[in-house]
Amino acid sequence: MKLRVGTFNVENLLTRHRFSSGERSDTAPAMSLFHFPRIDERDAVERSLAVALEDDKRQMTALAIAEAHADLWMLQEVDSLASLQAFFANYVHRIADHRYGHFTLLDGNDRRNIDIGFAARRDLLAPQRVAVSSHRDLSFAEAGVHDRDLAALGIDRSGKVFARDCLQIELDFGDRSLTLFGCHLKSMSNGRDDGRQATLPVRRAEARAVKGLIKRHFGEGWRAANWIVLGDLNAYRFGLGPLAQRTDEGESGIEPLLEDFAIDPMENLPEHERWTHFRRYWSEAGQRLVETHMPLDHILLSPALAAANPAPAMQMIRRGLPYRVPLDPRTPDRSIATLATSADRYPRIGWDRPKASDHCPLTIDLTIPQDRVS
Fold first, then answer.
1. What is the rounded CA–CA span in Å between residue 51 and residue 56?
2. What would the pLDDT profile of 218-260 be if each residue is shown by its tens digit?
3. What is the reported pTM?
4. Which of 300, 196, 309 is nearest to 256 (CA)?
5. What is the DSSP pairing of strand 130-134 with strand 177-184?
6. Domain 2-15+26-367 adopts which CATH fold?
């Protein structure tokens, strides 16, 4: 049985025009140019602007999903089940070859209420063949992952280990099964020089918790089972600087998932292809611009799946990224003139916005082996 499995951080697919506090990053620039004497007036204008921007953006998000042509999707940063269903009905299904269903989204722990969603081809399996579990309430103590580094950050043993959730989806295809563990691990506080290191203990604890969940679920047969850990793991060991120079970023936090456990098929790709996100920011510490192509999104395979798929095809759909992103990290010319005239983007993509997302979808083609009979 062959399946294409995908993960995509769709960047704030919301039913709200902004989060409860703070402004939307895409509406804030235009709003800053105008003075509104009344708060209700400002709010009405921001709502109108948000709707217009969201329509442009979601057409491009849908194009990326349609081009990826995946059978299964794990999606991050989705506001609600209603927004997930409306997005597929009114955007994806207007252009995609597949028709999706089996929509799942459970409220997690994110303070902005952006959650993990799941969708699959309607004709792939019957609804009763899909089982869903949330691990949002799992504590550091229950997972057995609390340590001195977490204590030093003031994190209590009773706290919830997952910054969002670990959404477990079990798919029963009859003679074979597949279990997905969808994650969106603790962010690196993007743009701060110390953010990655400061949040590392939390991501490491989350990774250890996911590993523990898998071992408890499958018992001694965890190596022989068909399972995948996928999502925006906010972690990378090596990045790509200008000219695709490999940069050692130190510990990522997801090492527990990769040490004698899951296999990362992205390692089979050429180095310049191993990225799903691009960051460019001013480093106050270094007093310089920092540019990095990084693999924040991952699809990690169980030993059994990796053995059945020694060199699986992976693809990253990058036509939805804004023009400011060099699509080939090896490109020596990063000037605005060159980047702004680089083709291979969807119609109406902008320099910084509109865009499909700040991530690109990652998919993998897999053969799912039959379950072993013990």
1. 9
2. 999 999 999 999 999 999 999 999 999 999 999 999 999 999 9
3. 0.96
4. 300
5. unpaired
6. Deoxyribonuclease I; Chain A (3.60.10)
